[in-house]
Write a structure and sequence with these properties.
Elements (H helix, E strand, L loop, with lengths): L8 H26 L3 H6 L5 H29 L1 H20 L4 H29 L5 H26 L6 H8 L2 H10 L7 H6 L3 H12 L7 H18 L13 H19 L2 H6 L1 H7 L5 H25 L5 H29 L2 H21 L3 H9 L2 H33 L4 H18 L12 H15 L13 H7 L1
Family: Belongs to the major facilitator superfamily. Sugar transporter (TC 2.A.1.1) family.
Protein name: Major facilitator superfamily (MFS) profile domain-containing protein
Main location: membrane
Length: about 500
């Protein structure tokens, strides 16, 4: 009988790993809030257009630069050390950013923060998914990305409160506070064990088994769940070791792996190009286009929007264990398309007619749109890739996800202010078209993973390869009803 005990380390796991994306949220949303703070604008000579775009884009540029290092470090030295190294780099970058007095120093600091956060960001969800109890893996991994809003929430309200300080501390204080999540990360990482899957792959099976017994079996060495889990992990990883291809070559060796690559790239771009990249990072500019220009009102709306986003994202994270991933992607994509299209129409009407009703409707639609985005993409952004990637591809796959996401973010933050300045509301149409494209890809290429263990998801993609091979020979696969292992049953229920 499998134990129902949950070790206290899982309680430590949440604040430790979630704090990484809190810092990410702080860095991303910080510039959004600072654009409404007069002291910040005076210090950096009211940046706009291409200069503002590059100040924003410097953070994802740093993240892109560190991408080649994250997977090799994670696979060679382990998940914990990679997160620790990234967190230390982030603290140094935040200190530099808070002390900046010139645009060049501010940009350089954001590049350093971006460099460090990729190391931690690509590895954090991997450690959660590989270490968490099967019963909690889905929700814990889904909650990981919701902490983006938790960090943004802190920054939004701190910026709102500090904006009236009347000195440079109005922007230096919220900037400096970004270091707190990384500091917590550095402290809590020492309370966590290493990934048992990484240990098994490194032929340290005894250590891995002891971790599973302690944290998944409540200390019982005869626990049925631990025995089934250890056997499944060991068999799967031994089979993966027999594959000679490595690195990026793995993603082009079979139809299933090419589909995995398509999923990663689609999710990465969708995470930034679904309209959220326009609304979240340039909220002050967008509010200005609908007639809301006061500093206090803009920062208040920013705080309220972030609070709503966090609540809806957490709700969606808890739903991932009950609602199919595919259903959340497809229905959420349709809802995003509908609401962002309506938002575009309202912004267009307001800009053409100055209609107060259109402006109020646009503001309301921003809140509704984010609810649909949070249901579709926020909790699934790291959960789904962690599920579909086998162990040997997991670190590299997450690096591809994060680097592609940061390239899309770099494009957004460099081009968005220029697009808004030059063509106004018409720039929204670019994102309307992309949402339609990504939703189509969700429908045709994103398989369901609900009810499968981390190792069991591979069977779904194995069928894709088998079907392709059979069709190439002019044959068809018989329809087989899959069973579930004990581990899969526990996860699903």
């Amino acid at each position: 009988m499998s134990s129902e005990k949950v070790n206290h380390s899982e309680e430590l796991e949440r604040p430790s790993q979630l704090s990484v994306t809190e810092l990410l949220a702080s860095e991303n949303s910080l510039l959004n809030g600072l654009q409404s703070v007069n002291a910040w604008k005076e210090t950096f000579h009211r940046p706009s257009g291409a200069i503002l775009g590059f100040m924003s884009a410097s953070y994802p540029l740093g993240a892109i630069l560190s991408t080649p290092f994250s997977a090799p470090i994670s696979d060679k030295f382990g998940r914990r050390w990679t997160i620790l190294i990234g967190s230390i780099i982030m603290v140094g970058g935040v200190i530099m950013q808070a002390a900046a007095n010139t645009i060049g120093v501010f940009i350089g600091a954001r590049i350093i923060v971006g460099f460090g956060i990729t190391l931690a960001l690509t590895t954090g969800p991997i450690l959660i998914s590989e270490l968490a109890h099967p019963r909690h893996r889905v929700v814990f991994t889904a909650l990981y990305n919701t902490s983006w809003y938790l960090g943004a929430l802190c920054v939004a309200w701190i910026t709102y409160g500090s904006a009236r300080m009347g000195s440079n501390w109005a922007w230096r204080l919220p900037t400096a506070i970004q270091a707190m999540p990384a500091i917590l990360q550095i402290i809590f990482i020492f309370f966590l064990p290493e990934s048992p899957r990484w240990l098994i792959y490194k032929d340290r099976g005894d250590e891995a088994l002891n971790i599973l017994i302690k944290y998944h079996g409540g200390g019982d060495p005869d626990d049925d769940l631990v025995a089934a889990e250890y056997r499944e992990i060991t068999e799967t990883l031994h089979a993966e070791k027999a594959i000679k291809a490595a690195g990026m070559k793995l993603f082009i060796t079979s139809p299933a792996n090419r589909q995995r690559l398509l999923i990663l790239c689609t999710l990465a771009v969708a995470g930034q190009w679904s309209g959220n990249g326009l609304v979240s990072y340039y909220l002050a500019k967008i509010l200005g286009t609908i007639g809301i220009k006061g500093q206090r009102t803009q920062t208040l709306i920013n705080g309220l929007l972030t609070t709503t986003n966090w609540c809806t994202a957490v709700f969606a994270a808890f739903m991932t264990g009950k609602v199919g991933r595919r259903k959340m992607f497809v229905l959420g994509g349709i809802a995003m398309f509908s609401t962002f299209s309506a938002l575009t129409i309202c912004v267009a009407v307001f800009n053409e007619t100055a209609s107060p009703a259109a402006g109020r409707a646009a503001l309301g639609l921003i809140f509704i749109y984010y609810t649909t985005y949070n249901i579709c993409l926020n909790p699934l952004f790291y959960l789904y890739p962690a599920e579909i990637l086998p162990f040997r591809m997991r670190a590299m796959g997450m690096s591809i996800l994060v680097s592609t996401n940061k390239i899309a973010l770099f494009f957004n933050q460099l081009v968005n202010p220029v697009g808004l300045d030059n063509i106004g509301w018409k720039y929204y149409l670019v994102f309307v078209v992309w949402i339609a494209i990504e939703t189509t890809i969700f429908y045709f290429f994103f398989p369901e993973t609900l009810g499968h263990s981390l190792e069991g998801v591979g069977a779904i993609f194995n069928e894709i390869d088998e079907k392709t091979a059979m069709e190439a020979k002019g044959a068809h696969l018989p329809k087989v009803e899959q069973g579930t292992t004990g581990v899969e049953f526990i996860e699903r229920n």
